[in-house]
Amino acid sequence: MGKGWCLFFLFWPIAAVVSCAMAPWIGWSFPYDNAQAASNLGIRIDGLFYLILIVTAIVFVGTQAAIVYALWRGANNREERADCVHGNHKLELVWSIIPGVILLFLAIYQMNIWADFRIKKFYPEVAVKAPIAEVTARQFEWRFRYPAIGKKLQQKPQPDDLHSVNELHVPFGKPVMIQLRSDDVQHSFFLPALRIKQDALPGLQIPVWFEANKPGTYDLVCAELCGWGHYKMKAHVIVQPEEEYQEYLKTLTEQQFYDGLGKIAATENGSESEATEK
Amino acid sequence: MSVLNPSPTGLQPILKPQAHHAPGNFITKYIFSTDHKVIAIQFLFTTLLMMIVGGALALAVRWQLAFPWESMPIVGPWLFAAEGGQISPEFYTMLFTMHATVMIFLVIIPILAGTFGNFLIPLMIGADDMAFPKLNMLSYWFMWPAIACFGMSFAYAGGPAAGWTSYPILADLPQAAPGSGTAQTYWLLGVTFIGFSSMMGSINYMTTIINMRAPGMTFFRMPMTIWGLFITAILQAFALPVLTAGGFMQVTDRLLGTCFFYPSGLVINNAAPTVGGGQALLWQHLFWFYSHPAVYIMLLPVMGMVSDMLSCMCRKPLFGYKPMVISMSAIASLGFIVWGHHMYTSGMNPAVGMAFMVATMMIALPSAVKTFNWTATIWGGKVQFNTVTLNCIGFLSMFIVGGLSGIFMAAVPVDVYFHDTYFIVAHFHYVLFGATLFGVFAAIQFWFPKMFGRMMNEKLGKTHFVLTFIGANGTFFPMHFLGMQGMPRRYADPYLHGYLEHLLPMNQFMTISAIVMGAAQILLFINIFYSMFWGPKAGRNPWHATTLEWTAPSPPPHGNFDVLPIVFHGPNEYAVHNGDHDFLMQTEKECQPPKPAEADENNDTDNDQEQSS
Angle, to 10 degrees, between the axis of helix B350-378 and the axis of helix B300-313? Predict the structure, then answer.
């Protein structure tokens, strides 16, 4: 009877390990057909993930096997009494110090990635100098505000700013930074392909930078409960070559400021706003 | 605490509880009882009832994820006739909010502290009753206003729709979630009531454990169960006021127009811009300052109980009693400085995130030490494969997964990806369902004979365990893969997004597993109610355990012990030569000489009932 139970407890860790080993082959791993992250930082994060996965997999297999083996021995124990052991000081030291060292190593090892990712001092200079757009989350859509062509993003909305909804275009080949804010409740800017996530906090403006390593269209979703339509905040980030990006901005300008006579009204407004700025 | 008796061993003065009369009529005996055992059983049945509610809510959530926008079977057409039986997205947010609320506040915390804390603390330390019996009664009866408040909040259209974490601004301003006006306020009141209930309980447990231990019961002779409950009580007493204060601040934000949690200039749902000066992040700090220790409140008692049960079922002393106590204390004290790991993506200072990360990594260490000690306890034991053992191993096996997936969460850069995805859902269900509930199932089976004087059925118990174990792993393990693929939590319809479209079959598999798991709980209820009346009678000590509660009659009468227990040993003295036993009760001074050879074969003592293997 006891041995049957040992097999029962052996079965599920095996199933777990097998399904994890199979996962990358049957599309159960990272999104977009197990694609590696679409940014260099994301690839480093994936690397950290796989490192932790290896450590935890070894511990998982080891502890589960030890439990089953101990149970197996316990089921076969023909002695009249169990071993009378109250503990072992040396063993306790060994299994406190080894995991302690491993955990401390993991903790220190990842600090670089985190610093590059989020500490403002380490942000790429190009990105910090010219934030590409302001991203405003609201129930239940994403709004994007780009500065007019050739201008810098201002803290306050300008009359010549370009606006779009649920579609963020960014140029390929350089790190970009957005200013993230929220109009109403809390949201979270989640780009699964780039391993980016940052909550949009009402009342704060949070700079977020990223750099895709290949052009493409990436899903942008909301990861913080923001009301009944939380699941509907469907948007895309489109990473495209610089020329296409400029082309896009031009089309956006035309759409927004076309006055019906073939002129673009934005230029006037633009100079005006610059004047007031000065 | 009126009578002070000199201690027979000179180790510890005995403080008697405020004498309360033996109950007279039905109402004082079973309803407004001050007897800790009756209160424990009241807690047990209330929490089991709530477990049905919480489980039903979970199944409704799973239904929507597996068969989105399809008519919910049985209750759908009746509840949402207007929507053709569909779960609306508003209702979906209410479902998962209430599932978490019910399971955390009305099932897990009260079943551990309320049921097992109440029942075991006086019995295991050798006291007549709790230090404050009336307070104890109140702590149970404060659960009911909480249940009423949660029920009312759920009944309102719009309901509590902000998740159990109740993050502002969604939870703070009524216009953010249409219809949630009164409902969210009731929800907050419910949390406050249940907070008072826990608070009264924890003060009582601390006082009882510190002051009312039997003579000879030093701190390091206390069973691990008592250590777990003691540390839990301390955690509760120090962390809970913060949540209660935060809750009040949110109530005043909602009702009195204060602005703790919202800044100026928010235009919510086309209402007028807000005028305020608050900060939503403040709530997260206040909330997680309680709710992270709360995770350990939901785990430490189980760790203690499993230590005692495992040692008894393996007939072996607990491996490393003191390291176990120290690691438990380490978990509790580190538990106070890791709350920030819930907030890596929240927008707080990223440098602070690093500090929280190191503390969080280090909290994995005592958990690992405990796991190794449990494994070492089994090692070389004479394992008895009964329902109690199986559930304990289930606890251990699943706790390992929950603990290991926690390391991914602790690592900040990795957590940024996994935060608020199904990976985290998998993680905390492995801890809260996998570890805590399996521990609770084991504990119910183990202490049932002491509660009701009858044994539970082994066959039913084992079937229940197998189905639950398979169902739980089938439901929660695939969640890791959903998280890997970036499926966010709390989505009514994740398939709207291109990169999640192909996840439907996996979700359907999980829902079927969840239904199996839910259905298996029927066996538990049958087992409990059948065994209460028709189970074989248990003697005083059916498990041949060593702790004090097994010296009392089953069920213990008013006042618990017929002989005042005096303690001579630590709690887990198994595998000794004591007459024809292999265990030494805490009340036995020394081992008996072995009996003559012819008596050796007869292992059954007069009190024993049959135990299936």
Answer: 20
Write out residues 258-297 of B within 8 Å (CB-CB) of A: 262-269, 279-281
Which sign, positive or negative, has the C-alpha torsion B75, B81, B87, B89?
A: negative
Q: How confident is the model at residue B19, as a pLDDT?
A: 53
For residue B451, what is the domain's CATH number?
1.20.210.10
Neighbouring C-beta atoms of residue B505, cutoff 10 Å: 9
DSSP helix, strand, coil percent of chain B (3-state; round to 5): 65, 5, 35
Q: Is the pLDDT of residue B16 over 70?
A: no
pLDDT score of B70: 87
The verdict on residue B602 lying in a domain is no
B216 in a domain, yes or no?
yes
CA B122 to chain centre: 20
What residue of A is the nearest CA neighbor of B503?
A: A28
- Facing A95 at nearest CB: one of B372, B381, B396: B372
Q: What residue has token string 């039986």? A: B85
**Which one of A225, A232, A234, A238 would you mutate to disrupt binding with B, by most B Cβ within 10 Å of its Cβ?**
A225
B162 in reach of chain A (CB within 8 A): yes
Tokens 């989350």, residue located: A137
Minimal Cα distance from A30: which residue of B? B485
- Is B390 close to A119, i.e. CB distance below 8 A? no
pLDDT of residue A161: 92
Structure token digits, residue A263: 């002129």
B596 domain-assigned: no
Secondary structure string (H, E, C) spanning B120-145: HHHHHHCCCCCCCHHHHHHHHHCHHH
Q: Is B435 on the interface with A (CB under 8 A)?
A: no
SS3 B267: coil
- The answer to whether the beta carbons of residues A196 and A190 sit under 8 Å apart is yes
Predicted confidence (pLDDT) per residue in B526-536, tens digit: 999 999 999 99
| Residue B38 belongs to a domain | no
**B407 in A contact zone (CB under 8 Å):** yes
Residue B144 sits in which domain range?
44-581
| pLDDT over 70 percentage in chain B | 93
Is A16 in Cβ contact with B167 (below 8 Å)?
no
Model confidence at B36: pLDDT above 60: yes
What does the pLDDT average to over A17-23?
93
Q: What is the ipTM of this complex?
A: 0.92
* Contact (CB<8Å) B89/A228: yes
The torsion angles phi and psi of A189, rounded to 5 degrees, stand at -85, 105
Chain A interface, best mutation among B342, B485, B496, B502, by max A CB count within 10 A: B485
Q: State the average pLDDT over residues B450-473.
A: 96
Confidence of residue B609 (pLDDT cuts 50, 70, 90): very low
Gap between the Cα atoms of B101 and B117, Å rounded = 21
Q: Mark B327-353 as b/e (b = at least 16 C-beta within 10 Å).
A: bbbbbbebbebbbbbbbbbbbbebeeb
Considering only the beta carbons, identify the residue of B93, B317, B466 that sits closest to A84.
B317
Domain count, chain B: 1
CA angle B150, B340, B374 (to 5 degrees): 85
pLDDT the model gives residue A2: 82
- Going by pLDDT thresholds of 50, 70 and 90, the confidence category of residue B66 is very high
Q: Which domains does chain A possess?
A: 3-75+92-121 (no CATH), 125-257 (2.60.40.420)
Phi, psi of B593 (to 5 degrees): -65, 150
Q: Going by C-beta distance under 8 Å and a sequence separation of 6 or more, which residues neighbour residue B602?
A: B580
What b/e readout covers B367-376, taking b as 16+ CB neighbours within 10 angstroms?
bbbbbbbbbb
SS3 A218: strand
Amino acid A260: pLDDT: 72
